[in-house]
Amino acid sequence: MPRLVDLSQEIYQGMGVYPGHLKTVVWDHATHAETIRLFEGGFSFHSQGLMMCDHGPTHVDAISHLDPADGAPSIDEMPLDTFYGPALCIDVSHVEPPEYITVDDLVQALDAGAHELERGDALLIRTGAFERHGGTAEYTRRYTGLDDEAGQWLYNQGVKVFGVDSPSPDNPISRTYPVHMMCRAKHITHYENLANLDQVTGLRFTFAGFPLRIRGGTGSPVRAVAIVED
Ligand SMILES: [Zn+2]
């Protein structure tokens, strides 16, 4: 049995959300005390309501989120193999916000590891944002991001998807979002708000981060997992 590493952040009322995104609300829809009266023999159940953004917390963007063109695939229209496959995690957590992550940073991080990046890999980029500020208000404000050239480099390396342990692969000081614009142009998607990348830094593993089958969804929360063969 391989080792499973949870790369997902928790979902709860009060969790940080990207500025301008829908807040998360969780409520008791039916409690044991309420439902026991509806049955005989002691049966009861507890269920909750859940309202949240389709971009929160650990989630994958649909192409329709990135590209306004007619026919850009929504999350339910994207092939499942987009969300599963060989992966590598590199560490650029020495870059402090508000600095940008550059091509040099990415290349040096790869060179420091034991594994080559292969075309078709998922590349997870440990920025350190979750480790620094996860669960605090700072998390949605203080993080670094890739510059334009670093975004183009991801495309040139042939990555299938990529992901970050921060609210966005774009630096929050940017107003042009070059990495999201690369994703729009090339129809490459990415994961945001990953967690626990310190546990898989430098490793090669299988990544799984399947979205919910939301009709017309512009993204979806995922349970992101690294499947590690030690
Ligand atoms: Zn995004």
From TrEMBL:
Q: Signal sequence: where?
A: none
A Pfam family recorded for this sequence: Cyclase
Transmembrane spans = none
Top-level taxon = Bacteria
**Per its UniProt record, what SUPFAM superfamilies does this chain match?**
Putative cyclase
InterPro entries on file: KFase/CYL, KFase_sf
Instruction: List GO molecular-function terms, semicolon-separated.
Output: arylformamidase activity
In Gene Ontology terms, what is a biological process of this protein? L-tryptophan catabolic process to kynurenine
Protein name per UniProt: Cyclase family protein
Species per Swiss-Prot/TrEMBL record: Solirubrobacter ginsenosidimutans
